[in-house]
Design goal:
Length: about 475
């Protein structure tokens, strides 16, 4: 079972939730600042109003007491009587009122107020510490008296917290509900991904049929890549099947010939006949060995790479010169004249073994199907961003309808002048696959006056850095 840390939905919900929490904290900071500012203003306005209401309510009583020289008045009983233990009593302990004369005589106070002044006799808002507790005080002068109204800072903090709770409780509930909703929507939105995984998981292991159906745009590239992979796998399987079928078909005949020659060698009574049979069997073994080597090479280049030959920079002109030099004796067997010319510094990006196989198969094809005592021309030149490889030989021409088919594996021309030569039809097919891997093209061109077969191959050139050097 996939863990939560590997779940795409979990990661999305977590990232969205964390983003919301971070945003909520940012908004909370701003709202708290605004609440603090507004609550301070409301607090001050309330103290101001309380002081003015108090001044209006008891000014007459205070003036009568001053005239009769009576003592101060307890404001709780005179204005807002409360019962002990009532809900308002706790709050009233944090509210205090005092009335002072100009001469500094206490005329009236609430039971929660001390006997010393709550603050300085200075009109307006002020803060004061009484018994190590902070109070907010508003002083108002009314004729010959000072009215002081004060509230404990706890009242202000409680007001702020209540406002904060009132604002953020719905917000927190909303964010939590939104996270649950996002989780549900993601669960539904990711259903096509689950359907895709289920469709892949339930497929037959041998099925190479592309995935079908209507997919969201985000999954179309995934489905397209998967279908492309199936196409590649199918092509690889077909190549392997073709290789096995071709191997079984092509090897059957020479193996039967080898078997016959060996039987003749065992049963023959004449030493010369036995020797001829053994030589024929050895020739058959050589042909089978060559056939198997070419079939393996075709299978490798058909896959687009050779794991034993990593790509590197190859000087195609130098490779051609080396091969021409190594095959001189082979051309002399048919008294053929070989002409070679090449421009220098023609570097391609390729596997060295495949570059050698390309030129070797073209030269071998020209030697094999060229006339006895004929001519073979090998020319390599620059054509823009490509190297043009031209291999031509005198001899029987290739019919126009066969010029594309000669690059097909196992195809052989049926004309007697061509079919008489040994071969299995793999040399030019291998050359065509290699050219394709090197981003080029190969064609059978119209022969010149003396030529019977002319093959033109173009492969893309590369530019080397000043300090780089080709492999050969």
């Amino acid at each position: 079972m996939i863990g939560l840390k590997d779940s795409l939905r979990f990661k999305l919900v977590l990232s969205i939730g964390l983003s919301m929490v971070a945003l909520m904290l940012l908004v909370a900071s701003g709202v708290y600042w605004a609440i603090q500012h507004e609550s301070d203003e409301i607090f001050k306005a309330r103290l101001n109003t309380s002081a003015r209401v108090l001044e209006g309510l008891i000014s007459r009583q205070i003036n009568q007491n001053m005239a009769s020289d009576s003592s101060y008045v307890e404001l709780d009983d005179a204005i807002v009587p409360t019962m002990p233990g009532s809900d308002t009593q706790r709050y009233e302990q944090k509210v205090a009122f005092q009335v002072w004369s100009e001469m500094g005589v206490l005329l009236a106070k609430s039971s929660s107020a001390p006997f010393e002044p709550l603050g300085a006799f200075r009109e307006g808002q002020q803060s004061n510490s009484i018994d190590k507790e902070e109070w907010q005080v508003f002083a108002l002068k009314s004729g010959p008296i000072w009215v002081l109204a004060a509230e404990h800072n706890d009242v202000l903090e409680e007001s702020r917290l209540k406002l904060l709770y009132a604002v953020f409780t719905p917000f927190v509930i909303g964010v939590s509900a939104l996270i649950l909703l996002v989780n549900f929507l993601l669960f539904r939105g990711l259903r096509p991904l689950r359907d895709l995984a289920a469709q892949i998981a339930t497929r037959d292991i041998n099925s190479l049929i592309p995935l079908e159906g209507r997919w969201p745009s985000e999954l179309k590239s995934v489905v397209s890549s998967f279908n492309g992979l199936l196409v590649s796998v199918k092509a690889a399987i077909e190549r392997e099947k073709l290789f096995m079928d071709s191997a079984a078909h092509e090897i059957r005949t020479p193996i039967a010939g080898i078997h016959l020659h060996l039987q003749n060698a065992l049963n023959g009574t004449d030493a010369r006949v036995r020797a001829d049979s053994v030589r024929s069997a050895l020739d058959g073994v050589r042909r089978v060995s060559q056939l198997i080597r070419q079939m393996l090479l075709l299978s490798r280049v058909g896959a687009g790479f050779d794991p034993d030959q990593p790509k590197s920079f190859v000087a195609i002109d130098l490779v051609a010169a080396q091969l021409v030099d190594s095959m001189t004796d082979k051309f002399k067997e048919k008294n053929q004249t070989l002409h070679f010319a090449s421009e220098p510094d023609l570097v391609v990006r390729a596997e060295l073994g495949q570059a050698e196989s390309l030129l070797g198969n073209l030269l071998d094809n020209a030697q094999k199907y060229g006339d006895q005592g004929g001519r073979v021309d090998v020319n390599i030149s620059r054509a823009g961003d490509f190297a043009l490889i031209r291999v031509a030989n005198s001899g029987a021409a290739i019919a126009l309808q066969h010029r594309e088919a000669i690059f097909t594996p196992y195809f052989r021309v049926t004309e007697p002048s061509v079919a008489a030569h040994e071969g299995v039809g793999l040399g030019l097919a291998i050359a065509a696959r290699i050219v394709q891997n090197m981003q080029g093209r190969i064609v059978a061109a119209d022969p010149q006056a003396y030529a019977g077969v002319e093959i033109l191959a173009t492969v893309r050139l590369v530019s080397l850095a000043p300090d780089a050097a080709p492999d050969t």
